[in-house]
Design brief:
By secondary structure, the chain is an all-beta fold. The chain has no helices and ten strands.
């Protein structure tokens, strides 16, 4: 647990109040906003056509707050979050089925590459980057 009583795993603590009853404690930033909440003012949408070779899905961006990727192709999309590494169907971070989405965790600002199981030429990765 952190010095302020916040669990290190990001969960909101439930602590006893003055009368001993359980109470949810939401950590607050100095400006009054909830601690640990990531806000973004902009969502930028792009599209990357399906490909049977590793392609960049989105470039590194130090201002990134988060990214959501939706696979509209009829084959599985494999995504890799690793700088300098090509994505393969056996070397990947996420496996995204047809019409499914994945939210890349807040804090990852590096390059994201992808490859589809086959190039069905019938879909894409719809990418929304939050900054």
């Amino acid at each position: 647990m952190a010095v302020d009583g916040t669990p290190l795993d990001g969960r909101i603590p439930i602590l006893p109040n003055a009368s001993g009853r359980p109470e949810v404690v939401i950590p607050i930033n100095p400006d009054g906003s909830p601690s640990g909440v990531v806000t973004a003012a902009t969502g930028t949408v792009t599209s990357v056509a399906d490909s049977a070779t590793s392609v960049p899905i989105i470039a590194a961006n130090p201002a990134r707050k988060g990214v959501t990727i939706t696979n509209t192709a009829s084959t599985v999309l494999y995504i890799r979050c690793a700088t300098g590494a090509a994505t393969t169907t056996t070397g990947y971070t996420y496996r995204v089925a047809q019409n499914a989405s994945v939210d890349i965790p807040n804090g990852y600002v590096g390059v994201i590459n992808g490859i589809w199981a086959t190039d069905a030429n019938d879909g894409s990765a719809l990418v929304t980057e939050f900054t």
